[in-house]
Amino acid sequence: MSQDTNSQLLGVVLIVRHGDRQGFYQNPQTYTATATQITPLGNQQEFMLGSYLRSLYLNQSSPSYITGMSTGMFNQSQVYIQADLGGEDGVIYDSCVSLTQGLWPATLSNNITLANGSTITAPLGGYQYVPIESVDPNLSVSLEGFTSCNTFNTHTTAFYNSSTFQEIAAQSASFLDSLPPYLDGRSVQLQNMWNIYDFMNVNDIHNATFSQALPSTYLAQVQTLANWHEYNVFSDQAIGGIGNIAGLTLLPTILNGFADIANSTNPVKLSITAIAYKPFLSLFNMTGVASANPSLAGIVDYAAAVALELRQPSGGGEPVIRFNFKNGSDATFVTYNFLNRTGDVPLSAFIDAMAPVAVNTTAAWCSICANTQDRGCAALALATAQGEADVRPKISPAGAGVLGAGLTLAVVLMMGITLAFLGLLTIGNFGRRRLRHPSAFKLNDVASI
User: Fold this and answer.
1) I want to staple 137 with a disulfide (CB 3.0 to 4.6 A). Which of 48, 86, 126, 205 is the partner?
2) What is the pTM of this model?
3) Would the pLDDT of 400 be above 60?
């Protein structure tokens, strides 16, 4: 399906990477990370991205204006925003705050008139306080599906042990052996390629002495190796393969966003999710964008954004999706073909491809990742064990009399606590929106949208 230049933009699902930050370390085997902090440059990058998105989607004179979207004050009923609060500490959340400042800047219209007739404007010239849902990875696996995923760790180890990895390690050994003067004692093993790149990139941005001393080609060479390394870790030959786990757990967020927009009775028109770089790699792999555009098979820049636009074709029929990507400081979005199709893709085709492999619940994640202890899996295991115990032979009447009602009450309380806990652990938005089964998508025709 080719692009319809006259299609109506119904809404957008935005996936955004955080801005510039200080350096941090990731375990090459498990990708557990240390804390870090955003920089003023990172705040500015996100603010500029937000300003660009405002000019594109919240501007009635723009050809990409989202139909019916408020162009003045922030309208909470039309927008859903969430940010990862995990691996990079508060960097992603803070980035998202700066993004919203660009999207909904301060305005003198943000005021209230009191009973005595005086008008009070919000602080900072009418600053708009935009609510952002923080996603704690201990309570939801949706934005960090790779963390504590045992089968993903096995996948990573298998990659490191592969003949291809060993060949690249041998080919790059002489170059890597020249890097110690620029790494402050860090390992120069190919397995550590992300940390090598991040340390050099952060210092090249923020340390003038380091930047001047670094040979002119070194950072580009390091980034090329890091791109290859990270793409192979966070991708898979099969769309539902464990290497794509960072994208598989993100899919319910994307599908929910489309369902909200396609539903004419739902006011949500813009869904924003702020994340780290890893799910981008999986998403580009699963959609075929990277295979068709090898330059995208790597780490996206700070403040990169994917805009999945849901559009109504001018000739009627079901909504279609347009895949746009802006890599950091790029001036504008670039539109890419995806799912081995040309132009916009029918929403039903995207659902058919992605819904079957989406990891929709913590229980599914625990099973896929072979984890019975972390991130809510222990509570699930407890509930399962309790269910199995319920079907075993019951205690004798005499025994029951001895144990009394106290044991019954304890079991009921335990089950209640477990179920309540599990309710907080399902993937999604912590009860804000009910998860949808793929069959729940209702594709309205042009007359009803």
Assistant:
1) 86
2) 0.86
3) no
